[in-house]
Amino acid sequence: LLSIGNIKPELETTEAVIDYNREKNSYRKFFFEKEILVGALLVGDTSKSVAIMKAVREGARKVQILGKIYN
Question: What is the reported pTM?
Fold first, then answer.
């Protein structure tokens, strides 16, 4: 399990991208405000935890982080 950043968005401008993989038994939810990653939840496969923590701290853009996570 990884929980980092703002995972309870209160702004209407916050967008969530959800990925559930039944085969890998994993759940990912990424929170973006104005295209910037502000939080994430990972359950199951946490192999990308270090990259996600760095991206939240550095304010990575949506296209950057999703490209790295899904490639």
Answer: 0.85
